[in-house]
Amino acid sequence: MKYVVTILLLITMIPAAATAAKKKKASPYFVYDQADETIKATMLDGGELYDPGVAATKDGLWLTWLKFTPGKGDEIYAAPGPKAGKAVSEKFGRYARPTLTTDSAGKLWLSYEAFDEKAQQWDIFIRAHIGSGKFGSPERISPGESNDINHRVSPDPAGGLWIIWQSDIGGQFDILARRVGGGKTSDIETIASTPWSEWSPSIAG
Q1: What are phi and psi of 154, to 5 degrees?
Q2: pLDDT of 168 above 80
Q3: CA separation for the pair 127, 64 (Å, rounded)
Q4: What DSSP string runs through 3-15?
Q5: For residue 141, what are the contacts with CB-CB under 8 A and spacing of at least 6?
Q6: φ, ψ for residue 53, nearest 5 deg
Q7: What Å distances lie between residue 170 and 50, 108, 196, CA to CA?
Q8: What is the pLDDT of residues 25-37, one digit of tens each?
Q9: Where do runs of H (alpha helix) occur along the chain?
Q10: Global pTM value
């Protein structure tokens, strides 16, 4: 009789457990609020595109990105819209972090990192927008003889831009900064330097 009672109890519990499992599955684990605003996306086409950036100007949004062509390398593109893109880099190469920044006077700047095949090192460059979708000649802002990478940019309220980056000095990374624009490029300032290396800087104006 003891075994019969136990079996009856198990039979009674199985349907109840199944019902509870169904109820649990019916309730989603995450419940999301409705979006306040839906923004329509535009898909860029034309090959292998990556590493995008965006900046707001008085004329609207400007976009930048890298386009990779197998067998040739990267090109930097910049445009006042997704359909008007054209290469602004002078040649195919190895590029990283194309960045558009608007300074306090409303001037648009393009900064990026480029690999020097001859010197076997990464350097940081900046170019001012000169109108009609064109940018001025590249100005190298990292004069070191080693890798300068992971740059970030912020407008200076007094004019021009501050650029901060990670520089390989003596086999370990320090954080350096420099002000550009306004007809003058400042000396390089050391922001952080320890024996343990500093990585991934950030800056805000």
Answers
A1: -145, 140
A2: yes
A3: 13
A4: HHHHHHHHHHHHH
A5: 124, 125, 126, 163, 178, 180, 185
A6: -145, 160
A7: 32, 34, 12
A8: 555 566 778 878 7
A9: 2-26
A10: 0.80
